[in-house]
Every structure is written in structure tokens, then in C-alpha cells.
Amino acid sequence: MLIIPGKATADHWIKTLHKIDPTLKIQVWPVVTNAEAVDFAMVWNYPPGELAKFPNLKCISSLGAGVDHILNDPHRPKNIPIVRIVDQKLICEMSQYVIWAVLNHVRQFDSYALSQARHLWTPHLPQPMQIGIMGLGQLGADVAVKLRDLGLNVASWSQTAKTLPDIRHYTGAAQLDDFLNNTDVLICLLPLTQQTHGILNLALFNRLRHGAYVINVARGAHLVDNDLITAIDSGQLSGACLDVFHAEPLAQNHPFWQHPKIKITPHIASVTHPEAVAAQVIENYHRVVNGQPPINQVDVNKGY
Ligand code: NDP
């Protein structure tokens, strides 16, 4: 097994994996002494080409929910399964973040901090707003249900038809306009694929209701940064909350740091906790070395 660690350190991963299976032989990139022994790779944002060095690799396991970092590697070994993390803790943390961002906007909580600083007693009545979620997968579906259960009006959009009680669903390119035309708060929870790259652009913002708010918690490359600033500065958008960026950490001179209507967080909406996911990683390891199909496999042709 090989680890190319992401946010959690390699030591943390090894300790957690060994608690479940102390017999696992783990090498940590970049110090790989036996490339032929590597049969399973756990990876996050690794340098493209690295995985081509392991002739006996049987499976690539993303350390997160997204696999764009793997599919974007033109030299990755083909014809072996790619798996991702599907985990309740990851799902719950994403919902917590999005609920915070939506309520903060809908209930105008930021305005009360400003009022308090100026000793002003300025109540605002919550305005009815339509929440629209792009992507109704593992994360989007949980966000949708939890926002609905908070009494908000929720709609969703995805590639294929879905049914969730009291959530209006729109399907595919044919219904995208209808979905956008009725949205006040747009949440992006799409995977990053060729089809979704740059989807949050000026043309899309102009199809939202006037004064709409954008929350991007998917990938930085979904968003055209300058288009967001143009749409906010023109008043078409009222603001945005962003957790993900084209380059992370965000460059010191990037205009998002200073923009009064853009809130940023350092890609923390939802992170993989080794303790929560070690069992599924080990299950997949045993499956692939025993010739069984792994769980949580992605469809390489779809890109997610
Ligand atoms: P899933 O694969 O479970 O769901 C993806 C959803 O997007 C599906 O509903 C799918 O439609 C829809 N979709 C994909 N392509 C299109 C398209 N072209 N048009 C319309 N809908 C489309 O992904 P997850 O919910 O697990 O994760 C979503 C993304 O969230 C990840 O890929 C990752 O980039 C991001 N993420 C961000 C984190 C953070 O901390 N900021 C943490 C974890 C993930 P259908 O169901 O019809 O196939």
C-alpha cells in the first residue's frame, strides 16, 4: 500500500490504518523503496505521473469525495478502478457548512455584527428565498434535505431525474434555465468534470434572480473568478461565499481577499477524517488484492 497524504499527515493515516489491520505494509510517498510492492494507492493532489511508477498497482483510492485530481493526471495507470470516499462524517460536515452559509445570508446575520458595533437596533425580517442546489449526489442530497427541514424552499438540479419529498428537481441542460431563473441562493456541489468546469460564469449568473447569492463548496475551477466579481459589482449578485479556489492557498494578491461582498474559507467545508474512513479504505484494499470489485468506485467516463 502507498500513501500520498493530503490534509491529515502520513503518520496519522498509518496509525489509524494499523489500528484496524496491523499487518498492512505501508510506504509513504516520496520515499518509496519498493515500487513493485505497491498494489493500492491512497492519494490526494499528487504530482501527475507519479502513479505510473508502480507496475503492480491495482486500485487508486482518493482520500476525499472528489476524484478530479486523479482523472486530471494524463499518465495515471488506466484500466484499474478509481474509488473515492463516501462517508457520513464528510456528508454531515458539508451540510453544517452550507447551512451556516445559507442562514447567514438569508437571515442577514452579518448585518447584526455591524449594527452591534455601532450600537444600532436594526431588525430585519427574513425574506422568502428559493435555494437551488447544483448536484444532488451524496453531499447535495443531504444539504437539500436538511435545508428543507429548516423550513426553506429548496430546489435541485442534476444530470438524471431525482425525487425527494418537497424538493423541486430539475434535470439536465434542458431544465437548467428554469432552475436558475427561480434561484435566489445558488449552491454548487457538482463534481469537477469537463462539463462542469467554469460552469459558474457570467452567463449563468445573469440567469439567476436579480441579487442572488452564490455558495461554491465544490471546486475552485467551477468558478470564473472575474465573472463573479463583475456580477457582484453590477448588482446582479448580492455576494458569494467560497470555500474552494483555483489555486490553494489563495494567492495573497487575489481580489477575493478584499472584496466586501465575498466571504472566503480555506477549503474546510468538509474534510476526510482518517478515523472515520480507515475501515472503508482497508475493506477496498482487501477487496482488490482478492480480486473483488471495490466499493465507491467512480465511473471514469462520467468523471465522478
Ligand atoms: P456525487 O458524485 O455523489 O454527486 C455529484 C452530483 O452532481 C450528482 O447528483 C450528479 O448528477 C451531479 N452532476 C454531475 N455532473 C453533472 C452535470 N454535468 N450536470 C448536472 N449535474 C451533474 O458527489 P458528492 O456529492 O460526493 O461530491 C460533490 C463534490 O463536492 C465533489 O466532487 C468535490 O468536488 C466537492 N467536495 C468539496 C469539499 C469541500 O470541503 N469543499 C469536500 C468534499 C467534496 P447525477 O446524480 O444525475 O449523476
Question: What can you see in these coordinates?
Answer:
- The structure is a single chain.
- This protein is 30% helix and 16% strand.
- The protein is of the alpha/beta class and 304 residues long.
- α2 (68-71) links the parallel β4 (59-62) and β5 (82-83).
- The longest helix is centred in the first third of the chain and has 19 residues, at 88-106.
- NADPH dihydro-nicotinamide-adenine-dinucleotide phosphate (NDP) binds at residues 64-66, 94, 135-140, 158-160, 189-193, 195-196, 217-219, 243-244, 267, 269-270, 304.
- NADPH dihydro-nicotinamide-adenine-dinucleotide phosphate is lined by residues 64-66, 94, 135-140, 158-160, 189-193, 195-196, 217-219, 243-244, 267, 269-270, 304.
Secondary structure layout:
Layout: E1 2-4, H1 10-20, E2 27-28, E3 40-43, E4 59-62, H2 68-71, E5 82-83, H3 88-106, H4 109-117, E6 130-134, H5 138-149, E7 153-158, E8 168-171, H6 176-181, E9 185-188, H7 202-205, E10 212-216, H8 225-233, E11 237-242, E12 262-264, H9 274-289
Parallel strand pairs: 1-2, 1-3, 3-4, 4-5, 6-7, 6-9, 7-8, 9-10, 10-11, 11-12
Helix pairs in contact: 1-9, 3-5
Bound molecules: NADPH dihydro-nicotinamide-adenine-dinucleotide phosphate (NDP).
Residues 64-66, 94, 135-140, 158-160, 189-193, 195-196, 217-219, 243-244, 267, 269-270, 304 line the site of NADPH dihydro-nicotinamide-adenine-dinucleotide phosphate.
